[in-house]
Amino acid sequence: MKPQELQAFKQHLLTMQQDLLATQDSGIDAAKTVELDQTKVGRLSRMDALQVQAMSQEMNRRREIELKKIIAALSRLEKGGYGYCSHCEEDIALKRLQFDPSASLCIICASKLE
Q1: 53 confidence band (pLDDT: 50, 70, 90)
Q2: CA 72 → CA 28, 30, 77, 84, 110, distances in Å?
Q3: Higher-confidence residue: 88 or 33?
Q4: With 80 as the cut, is the pLDDT of residue 80 above it?
Q5: What residues have CB less than 8 Å from 11, skipping those under 6 apart?
Q6: Phi/psi of residue 84, each to 5°?
């Protein structure tokens, strides 16, 4: 892979990381514990709040996974292993990396693992 392509992927990964970190703060507030006092919140409103809380917790979990993948991809970039499958060590297709810059497996190995 050409140095300018690697630099473009690095910049894209850093932008993705910044975007996820920016949305992380708002997700933390929504995932906080729902107040149980039904005199302040009706039963249906409380159920709705619990659902919103559960969805927010799941979004936070997914965000954390994505951040870990981005950090791993940035580490591979620094070490010179970016763009190579971590399982078979073959090149990862450029289109796959353009779709998901944090991909660590080629499409064949990813398909086998699913």
Answers
A1: confident
A2: 23, 28, 9, 13, 17
A3: 88
A4: yes
A5: none
A6: -115, 140
Domain coordinates in residue numbering, the chain: 3-82
Location of structure tokens 């949305």: 23
What spatial distance separates the first Cα and last Cα of the chain, rounded to whole Å? Answer: 27
Half-sphere exposure of 96 (CA within 13 A, CB side): 17
The two structure tokens encoding residue 61: 């979990």
- Amino acid letter at 81? G
3-state secondary structure of 13: helix
Q: What is the C-alpha separation between 65 and 73, in angstroms, rounded?
A: 12
Would you state the structure tokens that stand for residue 35, as one six-digit string?
A: 């107040």
| pTM (predicted TM-score) | 0.78
What is the spatial distance between Cα 15 and Cα 108, in angstroms, rounded to a whole number?
28
pLDDT at residue 44 tops 70: no
